[in-house]
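We were asked to recover a plausible sequence for a given structure. The inputs and outputs are reproduced exactly as logged, with field labels preserved.

PROBLEM: sequence recovery
POSITIONS: 433
GIVEN STRUCTURE:
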């Protein structure tokens, strides 16, 4: 109580639990080492029952019983408080604790009793509180979940019903489609059987032709090498012409090669090609040999065909043009007139042409020599009859041999070799013209 406070500040006595304004308490000071005397608590009643009317109640320390138990002491100075001097006994109460009686106050009808530990048990003890039941304080509140489960169950039932209906409709639709398909198959079965028979027959015929062609090639190769040897070993022109197809048409050329020159070609070696080429007109295999001679180390191509008496003979134009390199001479002279040549033909990409002209022409890789000296790209217009025929006759990745008419033309701004016609075009594709 040594702190300076306002007189009307409420306070509670630490010994008797008295509660009232600060002005009703006596200033208590003593050394820090001196214990506080134990004072017996004096039970009191409400002061409003003893205080005369008009006289304010006196402080509780002026009560005769309280004065007998404890005597007021004078306030300690700063030095006494620091050096723990003995307290001085007050001769009389300070003036601040003897308030002058004021004018009489009118008696109130309902006097407010001072709150003391006697009439207010709540001041000295904590207010009683009833603990909440365990089930109310700890147990969680139970929620009603049956509406949610009911809604989920109804949803799944409806979803299952809708799915079942859709599945049943799909099943019925599938059955109807199967019925229509069976009717269609039953009505088209004869036609399909006939077509299958036709396709099977065509395949069988193609296989039979391929086998026969290969057998013929093998037979021609077997008898071809002796024919070539006898042709080169012949002593006279008439004897040599017996091994040439259409001898009267090629008499002059045969005589110029073997009898007119200072040095006659002699056969060094003859061997069949590993992959027989196909005929450009009939698509049949051709028994072709590579005949290496003393005058041409790269040799010439010899095609063994059937003569007038069904004996194997040499196809003279192919051998003469490849051995003498006639195609290479034509390629070197861009001013030459169009000519017919027996060449190998293979379809290829027109990468040499500008992109704008690639869709207008078909590109072919043709070769009329055995040393690639007569190999060149030739083009055929897709709108020309020969172009449409070759596009139909020549397959990708296959080598064909045939007779074509080639000439120089202005294609995409440059002079290039063009295929103008081919042998058998009238017989194979008259409608293409």
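RECOVERED SEQUENCE:
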């Amino acid at each position: 109580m040594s702190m300076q406070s306002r007189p009307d500040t409420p306070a509670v006595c630490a010994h008797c639990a008295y509660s009232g304004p600060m002005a009703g308490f006596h200033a208590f000071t003593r050394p820090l080492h001196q214990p506080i005397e134990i004072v017996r608590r004096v039970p009191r009643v409400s002061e409003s029952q003893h205080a005369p009317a008009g006289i304010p109640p006196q402080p509780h320390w002026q009560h005769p019983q309280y004065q007998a138990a404890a005597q007021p002491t004078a306030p300690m100075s700063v030095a006494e408080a620091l050096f723990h001097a003995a307290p001085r006994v007050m001769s009389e109460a300070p003036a601040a604790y003897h308030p002058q009686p004021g004018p009489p106050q009118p008696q109130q009808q309902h006097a407010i009793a001072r709150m003391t530990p006697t009439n207010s048990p709540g001041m000295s003890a904590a207010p009683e509180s009833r603990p909440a039941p365990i089930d109310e304080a700890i147990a969680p509140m139970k929620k009603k979940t049956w509406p949610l489960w009911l809604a989920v169950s109804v949803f799944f039932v409806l979803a299952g019903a809708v799915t079942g209906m859709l599945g049943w409709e799909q099943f019925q639709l599938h059955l109807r489609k199967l019925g229509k398909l069976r009717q269609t198959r039953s009505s088209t079965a004869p036609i399909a059987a006939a077509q299958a028979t036709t396709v099977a027959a065509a395949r069988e015929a193609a296989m039979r032709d391929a086998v026969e062609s290969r057998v013929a090639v093998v037979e021609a190769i077997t008898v071809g090498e002796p024919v070539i040897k006898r042709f080169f070993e012949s002593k006279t022109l008439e004897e040599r012409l017996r091994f040439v197809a259409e001898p009267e048409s090629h008499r002059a050329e045969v005589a110029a090669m073997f009898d007119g020159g200072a040095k006659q070609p002699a056969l060094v070696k003859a061997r069949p090609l590993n992959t027989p080429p196909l005929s450009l007109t009939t698509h049949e295999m051709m028994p072709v040999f590579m005949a290496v001679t003393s005058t041409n180390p790269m040799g010439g191509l010899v095609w063994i065909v059937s003569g007038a008496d069904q004996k194997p003979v040499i196809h003279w134009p192919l051998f003469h043009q490849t051995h003498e390199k006639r195609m290479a001479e034509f390629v070197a002279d861009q001013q030459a007139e169009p000519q017919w040549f027996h060449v190998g033909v293979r379809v290829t990409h027109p990468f040499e042409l500008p992109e704008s002209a690639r869709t207008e022409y078909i590109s072919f890789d043709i070769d009329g020599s055995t040393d690639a000296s007569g190999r060149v790209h030739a083009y055929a217009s897709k709108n020309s009859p020969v172009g449409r025929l070759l596009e139909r006759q020549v397959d990708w990745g296959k080598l064909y041999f045939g007779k074509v008419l080639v000439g120089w033309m202005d294609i995409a701004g440059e002079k290039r070799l063009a295929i103008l016609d081919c042998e058998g075009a009238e017989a194979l594709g008259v409608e293409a013209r």
